[in-house]
Amino acid sequence: MDIHNYSRLFKNMATLEFINYTPYRHTVINDGEVIWECDPNLKAIKSLPMIFWADGVPWHEVNHWAHERATSGNIELKTVQDQMRHLHKFAEWLELPESPDWRHFPMSRADRVLIKWRKYLIDLRDKFSILAPTSTTARMNACISFYRHCSAFGLIDQNTQKWTDTPVVIKYHDTAGFERTLSRITTDVSIKCKVTNRTTVEEGLLPITGEHMRQLLAFARLNCTQELFLMLKLGFFTGARVQTICDLRVSNLDRAVPDPDVADLWRIAVGPGSQPHVKTKFDVSGNLLIPEQLLNEIKDYAYSIRRMKRVAQAPSENKDLLFITTRGNPYERKEDGKRSSAINSEMVILRHKARSAGLKFMDRFHFHQTRATYGTQLMKTLLPMGNLQAALEFVRNAMFHKEVSTTMKYIKFIEHTKRKIEVANAYTQVFLGLSKKIGNEGA
User: Fold this and answer.
1) What is the pLDDT of residue 334?
2) Residue 423's pLDDT band (cuts 50, 70, 90)
3) Is the pLDDT of residue 415 over 50?
4) Which sequence spans correspond to the domains of the chain?
5) Helical segments of 153-241, H only
6) What's the pTM value of the predicted model, to 2 decimals?
7) Calpha distance 348→298 (Å, rounded)
8) How far apart are CA 159 and CA 106, in angstroms?
9) Which residues of 106-246 form beta strands (DSSP E)?
10) Opening angle at CA 125, ends 121 and 126, nearest 5
11) 178 Cβ neighbours under 8 A, 6+ residues apart
12) Can you give the pLDDT at residue 195?
């Protein structure tokens, strides 16, 4: 595969569509006529994902899999949408000239469709660094789940050997500290998620340094849109996820209250119970802690002529959003399952400009690193005060962490970084001493 032509390979190929699904039932009347009517006992689904081949024909088997999962009541629609995005990539690959049919499972293991697909995914991960390890594993798992469904429903030959199942036992500790075991079935076509040795904090990402943060904000002020600049500041100084930032509304700012303990610090309610509701991961409720100066800055933006022009273009449901595009749309992913590319596009442009200006740390910068940076700086400030438990609880609440184990990563990262600096300093001293000794002997 030519990496330079990667994006061109999949033009005019299989598509992923999101439909509004209304369940119907049929009734056969006396003369044999079939009457279709809405089934009141089943719930309609907005944005049910469906895959169509390049010629417009639906991929019936994979669409049946999506329908069964979405209507089961046990799986969230968002999960089904994410898995269908993985299957969409599989469909695109299947339409490449050299790819086999999705039901191709000959006796030769190397020629089986899933073996070839597995090798392709591993190449994207290891050779070209296009896919993250977690995405690679999730993409293969989605395909395996689909094929299991096809076997169960007789949509593919059940006697064909597609892989070899292997039982595994996973050991873990429960909340009381007792060791438990969990039995699972894995396959020889699964892709293990590569675990990196580096110590990270938020979802495998590293924070940037305080100096790099200042350089980025100074550069962004002059080289990106005002909206992205303010989003970056909110990320760095409140630790909010991009999902939460993009769902903030002007009404939320107007309902902000002063922090009772810290001067010049305000609280904005988000999550379940906030008015109006602001999305948070896992629906964790809490308060964003925002400096008064930043709150005033985004309030000024909220009532600026620039934003009012955007409000004029927005439908009624978007008018109260703090950040909307020039066309009146939200910056983040919409509920119809389609991704809004606005914030992604602006981040790509900012990274390109920053690299050209010599800001090398921006080469792999992700918006989520603003949150990782906030959490690290906050924990660094609190740890020297001596009360570890209080620091953990404060950072956990400020970061909306569901589990305290996530907050603990910040302490581990800070300790790991401290040890690295100590080792580096010791090595430097030894190196300088050795260099001086060699220099003296040479003289």
Assistant:
1) 58
2) low
3) yes
4) 3-160, 212-355
5) 210-223, 226-238
6) 0.66
7) 23
8) 12
9) 165-173, 179-187
10) 115
11) none
12) 59
d(CA 89, CA 135): 12
CATH code, residues 212-355: 1.10.443
How many residues are there in the chain?
Answer: 443
- Distance linking the first and last C-alpha atoms of the chain: 57
Query: Which residues is 289 bridged to in the sheet?
Result: 267
Alpha helices in 314-368 (DSSP H): 342-356
For the chain, what is the mean pLDDT? 85
Dist CA 37 CA 24 (whole Å): 5
Going from the C-alpha of 334 to that of each of 4, 84, 212, 249, the distances in angstroms are 31, 16, 32, 15
- Both tokens assigned to 54: 């390049």
How far is CA 247 from its chain centroid?
A: 16
pLDDT tens per residue, range 9-62:
556 689 999 999 999 888 888 777 888 888 888 889 999 999 999 999 999 999
Q: Are 189 and 118 spatial neighbours (Cβ–Cβ below 8 Å)? A: yes
Farthest-apart Cα atoms in the chain, separation: 112
The burial of 407, by beta-carbon neighbours within 10 Å (0-12 exposed, 13-18 middle, 19 or more buried), is given as buried
**Can you tell me whether residue 421 is helix, strand or coil?**
helix
Q: How far apart are CA 95 and CA 92, in angstroms?
A: 5
CA atoms of 9 and 416, how far apart (whole Å) = 43
pLDDT at 345: 85
Distance CA 208, CA 374 (A): 9
**353-378 residue pLDDT tens:** 999 999 999 988 889 889 889 888 88
pLDDT value at 197 more than 60 = no
